[in-house]
Each structure stands twice: as structure tokens, then as C-alpha cells.
Design brief:
The complex is a heterodimer of chains A (281) and B (164). Chain A is an alpha+beta fold. Chain A is 33% helix and 25% strand. In chain A, β2, α2 and β3 form a beta-alpha-beta unit. Chain B has two domains: 75 residues, Beta-grasp domain (Ubiquitin-like (UB roll), Roll), CATH 3.10.20.30; 78 residues, DNA polymerase, domain 1 (Orthogonal Bundle), CATH 1.10.150. Chain B starts with a strand and ends with a helix. The chains are: A alpha+beta (281), B alpha+beta (164).
Chain lengths: 281, 164
């Protein structure tokens, strides 16, 4: 289908972009890579009055080293993120999860910031950024990952606020990592996904961090499993036992891809697998 | 209306376009490049895949205004009018199609795959074509065609190695 009519602006400064959003008075929409927005426009599920294309803003581009963290620009495409040396060195979990997003053509256009701001609970990147304690840097402020994802398809961004990028700490450099995603067909969204980071010492798990995709209206941490595996053996048996707690505190949806009960089961199985792969056992 | 300046298959076009005009409609309806078909409204099928600055994109998911200042290659820009591109020839020789609707997108996605990986395994070919759906072939002959084209294109680039 053909989208409903809208105006289009491509500002070259952040100030102009924020002004354009403000003038649109909540009827404006930020356009980054458009890989989530364009289908919504074509199906007329969204009909903004004006699109503000942020591809011309230098502040949103690339990945940079900033001492004890790296900053991934909101306009960095999935294709760029996957191949970026800084991401591979300090956030290989992000590179791994990003390589599972959609398909190559979508990854060429789709952006890191766009998929986070879209806040789809079935998206792969929100759980990764939550697991890594990312700090969202916007045109107005900084927002911790735990406060950024507000609800289903809803972020904490105000209507006149633009996501510039996310600061990822180097704390997890060298940790074991894995993103375990279950979907039924190529390029489909995750029915459930598990982002996992582990630090091992002498055959034991010193620390684990686990984030779940599509187990509620926002990404959630599996704190009960993190606690259960800490200071325990790095073994498949220990992981399977601990992963029974993965659904604790979650509120997974029931839809045509699976019931809530099925998702709770998947969370247990996939969490055990993610831990085993991340720990290398 | 926004102005766009875009290179398509080696020709520069300057046009005024409606902001909501999709790249795929611009190519087909304005430029007559109907070699790029439209298969779905959900970004799933990949039939409309073209190259934008050398990278595959689904032209139904790009606005014409977003192509401003960029280079687009469609399936119509591959052959020289006399000879088919090696990828097109391989699709023909391996009978990698039945109805042919997905073929332009398959060919463009396959070229993108070979740009990154000149000698892909069957599994890598399948992963590289993940965003392109074919409802006729079961993909077997498509995978064979891409492998054949990859072999041919590598040998064409390194003829001495191929002889040894």
C-alpha cells in the first residue's frame, strides 16, 4: 500500500531536528533507517504529519571509544554494529544479537537506535542493552536502560526528544557471552530470546547477567537465575537447575506464535543453553 | 515537493517527488524500471531488493527521498544489453526459478552476498538469502545457481589460478 501523505524534513543540526519535532506538536515521527516505521506507514498503522529524517545529524553516527565505555551512535546500522571493531572487542554480545536481527537487506538500513526507540519487546537489542546496563544518551538527558523501556512499543523518550546513542560500559569486556534466540522461520521475530554474560573464575561462575526478550511488555532481567548461578559450578546441570527460575517475575504474552505457558518453558530451556554457551561448557 | 538527485543504473535523475513515494514506486512508475517487482507489503519477501551504494535494500522500505544523493542498481543495470551478468546466466543455467517473480530480488541479494563472501558454503548462501522468499523452487536450484555464479566470478577474476 501507499502511505498516507506526510511532510518530510532532513535537518542538518540537532537543534533544527528538535525544533522540527517540537513544532510538529506530537504529530512528528523520527525517521532513522525506517525498517520498522516504513511497514507501519505502508499498512497505515501509523500516519504522522511529518517525518524528521535524522540521517544528516553527525552526533548520531558511528561507534566511538570513550575511556571506560564505548558509545554506539543511534544511526549506526545493524550492518555497521556487527562489524565494528570496538563493538566486537567490548560488546560482542551486541554484535552476536545484532547478527540475528531480520535479514541482510534490513540490517543494511535498520539502525541500532531506531530498533531501541521502537521498543518492541520482541526486538533483540533491548534485552542486550538492558543486560549490559547501557546508558541512553538523548538530546535532553541520560536515561539508564532499566528506565528506558516503559511499556509495549513505548520508550521513555518525550515527543521532542531524540536518541543520540547508547553508552555501553567496558565492564563486561572479556566475559563469556551468548544470545540464544528461538524463532520458527528465517527472519522472524524472537518467540523468546536470552541475552547472557558470564564471568568465570576457576571453573565457577563468578557473575552472570541475563536479559530476556519477549517475556513481557519490556525486556526483563532474570535476577533469580543470576543469583542462583553466582559462585556455583559452571556445569550444564547447575545451569539447568538455576534456569528453572527464568520465568520468575515475567509476564509473557500469548499470541499466535506461542502461549504464555510455552514462552515460560522456552525461557527455562533457552536460559540454560545461553548460560552453557556463554560459559563454554 | 522534495527534490531528489539519484543515480539509477548509471544514469543521473533529477526529480520532484512526493515525500511518501516509495523507492520501488519511483523506480517502476517514474523511471519505468519494472524489472524490480513488488511482492508484499510487509518487508518480508525481498522481491523488490536493489543495491543502494552497493548494499542490498528492500526498495519498498526506502522512501525515494531517502535515496537522494545515492546510487541505486536494479536488476536492469546488470547486463550490458548483449550478455547477461554471470549471476543472471547462472540462474538461467541452473533453472533457479519457476514463476520468476522472486528472481530479480534473489539475484540482487545474491550479488550482495558475494560482495561480502566470494566463496560461500551452501549454508552461508541460505543465510545470505534469508530475506528473500521463493514459493516455487524449494531454493535448491537457487543455491546451486549462486554457487555456480560464485565459482565463475572468482575464476573470471583470477584466470591464472583457475587454470593451475
Amino acid at each position: 500500500m501507499i502511505p498516507a501523505p506526510f511532510d518530510y524534513v532532513r535537518p542538518s543540526t540537532l537543534n533544527d531536528a528538535v525544533t522540527a519535532l517540537r513544532e510538529a506538536d506530537e504529530e512528528g515521527k523520527v525517521l532513522a533507517g525506517g525498517q520498522s516505521l516504513m511497514p507501519l506507514l505502508r499498512l497505515r498503522l501509523a500516519y504522522p504529519e511529518v517525518l524528521i529524517d535524522v540521517s544528516g545529524l553527525p552526533e548520531l553516527r558511528g561507534v566511538r571509544d570513550d575511556g571506560d565505555s564505548i558509545v554506539v551512535g543511534a544511526m549506526a546500522t545493524h550492518y555497521e554494529v556487527m562489524r565494528d571493531p570496538l563493538v566486537q572487542a567490548h560488546a560482542p554480545l551486541l554484535a552476536a544479537a545484532t547478527s540475528t536481527v531480520a535479514d541482510p537487506a534490513v540490517r543494511h538500513r535498520g539502525t541500532f537506535g531506531g530498533s531501541l526507540a521502537h521498543a518492541d519487546p520482541a526486538g533483540d537489542l533491548p534485552a542486550v542493552v538492558l543486560t549490559m546496563d547501557g546508558l541512553f544518551v538523548t538530546s535532553a538527558r541520560e536515561i539508564p536502560a532499566r528506565d528506558f523501556f516503559a511499556d509495549y512499543l513505548t520508550s521513555a523518550l518525550e515527543p521532542d526528544e531524540i536518541l543520540l546513542g547508547v553508552r555501553l560500559p567496558k565492564t563486561y569486556t572479556g566475559w563469556g557471552f551468548h544470545y540464544e534466540k528461538f524463532h520458527r522461520t528465517a527472519q522472524a521475530w524472537a518467540v523468546v530470546g536470552v541475552a547472557c554474560l558470564v564471568r568465570r573464575t576457576d571453573g565457577e561462575i563468578a557473575h552472570a547477567r541475563i536479559g530476556l526478550t519477549n517475556m513481557g511488555s519490556t525486556p526483563v532481567r532474570a535476577y533469580a537465575v543470576e543469583t542462583a548461578v553466582a559462585d556455583g559450578p559452571a556445569s550444564r546441570e547447575a545451569f539447568q537447575s538455576a534456569a528453572r527460575d527464568a520465568p520468575d517475575g515475567t509476564n509473557p504474552p500469548s499470541d499466535l506464535h506461542g502461549s504464555a505457558e510455552y514462552r515460560r518453558h522456552l525461557a527455562q530451556v533457552l536460559t540454560a543453553r545461553a548460560l552453557a554457551t556463554a560459559a563454554g561448557v | 515537493m522534495p527534490h531528489v538527485s539519484v543515480d539509477v543504473d548509471g544514469v543521473r535523475y533529477e526529480d520532484e517527488v512526493e515525500a511518501r513515494l516509495l523507492l520501488t514506486h519511483y523506480l517502476r512508475d517514474r523511471l519505468g524500471k519494472v524489472g524490480t517487482p513488488i511482492g508484499c507489503d510487509t518487508s518480508n519477501c525481498g522481491a523488490c531488493t536493489v543495491l543502494m551504494d552497493g548494499l542490498s535494500v528492500k526498495s519498498c522500505s526506502v522512501l525515494a527521498v531517502q535515496a537522494d544523493g545515492h546510487e541505486i542498481t536494479t536488476v536492469e543495470g546488470l547486463g550490458d544489453g548483449q550478455d547477461l551478468h554471470p549471476m543472471q546466466r547462472a540462474f538461467h543455467e541452473e533453472h533457479a526459478l519457476q514463476c520468476g517473480y522472486c528472481t530479480p530480488g534473489m539475484i540482487m541479494a545474491a550479488l550482495d552476498l558475494l560482495r561480502d563472501n566470494a566463496d560461500p558454503s551452501d549454508e552461508e548462501i541460505r543465510a545470505g538469502l534469508e530475506g528473500n522468499l521463493c514459493r516455487c523452487t524449494g531454493y535448491q536450484n537457487i543455491v546451486r545457481a549462486v554457487r555456480r555464479a560464485a565459482d565463475g566470478m572468482r575464476q573470471a577474476e583470477r584466470p591464472e589460478e583457475a587454470r593451475s
